Amino acid sequence: MPRWSKRRVLLCVLAAAVFVVGWKGARAAYAVYAEFRKPPRGAPARPHMEHLIDVAFQRKDGATLRGWGFPSRNGAAVLLLHGSPSERTQMLPEAFALYHAGFGALVIDLPGYGESEGKVDWTPASADAVEAAITAMARLPGVEPSRLGAYGFSMSTLALTNEVPRDPRIAAVALSGTLVDYDHALAFEQGHWGPITAWPARAMARLLLDVPHMHAGDVSAISPRPVLFIHGSADAEVPLWMPRQLFAQAREPKELWIIPGGWHGDYQEVAGQAYFDRLISFFSQHLLAHTPPVADAPREPAGTSTPR
Question: Does 80 fall in a domain?
C-alpha cells in the first residue's frame, strides 16, 4: 500500500474514533440536559405514609411543579432535590429516614422531570425553582419557617448552591455528589483515555447540543449557616477534587464526609444506616438544638423578577 494511503487511512481512523468518542460524550450530556418525563412510581408502602401530601406550586414564570410533602413533628423540614435524569422518588429513602426521625420533608420533580412543567435547566437561573420549593415546604403542616434545611444530590447541587447563598430561609444545607461545574464533570466521566476522550466529549456537547455553562454558586456565602459535603470515594461521574475544592472554598461551619467505596448516589448501599444517621444528626444539630443561624438578607428585594 502506498505510503500516502496509509497516512490517509490512519487519519480517517483517528477522525472516526474522535467522532465516536465525542458522540458518546454528547449523548451523556443530552441525558443530563434532556427532559425526563417518567411519572413517579408512587410512594412505596411504609408505616405512617398515609400522611403523605400531594404538593403543587408555581415558580415565577407560572410553571407548575409537583411533589410529595411530609408533615413535621419536630418543627423542622428538609427539601430534598434529585439528580439527573431522575425524579422525586430518587430521594424517598432520605425522606423516609428524616420523617421517621420527626422531620418534615418535601421531595419534588424539578422542571422538566416527572410531573413538573417547564424545561430542564441546571444553570444559575434554575435557582428560581428551588426558591419556590422552599416557600412550599414552609407551608407544610407542623413546619416552623425558621427551621428549614435542604439536601441536593448531583446536578441539583448546582441549583441549590446558587439559591441558598441569597435565600436566608435555609438554615442548614447538605450537598452530595456535588459538582464545581458540568464541563469538567463530563470530561472526567468520559476521560477514560485522558484528553483523547475528554476533549471530544466536551466539544461535541457544546457544538451539537449548545449545552450552557452550568456551575456551582458561591458556597462561601452560605456561612454562617452550616454545610455538609458528602461524596463517594469511588464516584465515577464526579471527581473527588470537586467536593474538596468546594469544601476548601466554604467557610465554617462545614463538614466533609468521604464514604469509602461509595459511588455516585445510593450511599446507603455502601454506608448502610450510618448514612441516614449522619443526615439526621446533621439536621438535628443545626435545626433543632438551638436557634438556627440567619444569613444576610437576599441581595434583591423580595418579589422582583430580576433574572438570576
Answer: yes
Residues 119 and 86 in one domain: yes
**Do 74 and 154 have their domain in common?**
yes
How many domains are contained in the chain? 2
Domain that holds residue 18: 1-34+182-213
Q: Which of 209, 162, 168, 188 is nearest to 32 (CA)?
A: 209
| pLDDT one-digit tens code per residue, 242-300 | 999 999 999 999 999 999 999 999 999 999 999 999 999 999 999 998 777 666 544 44
Q: Judge if 62 and 174 occupy the same domain.
A: yes
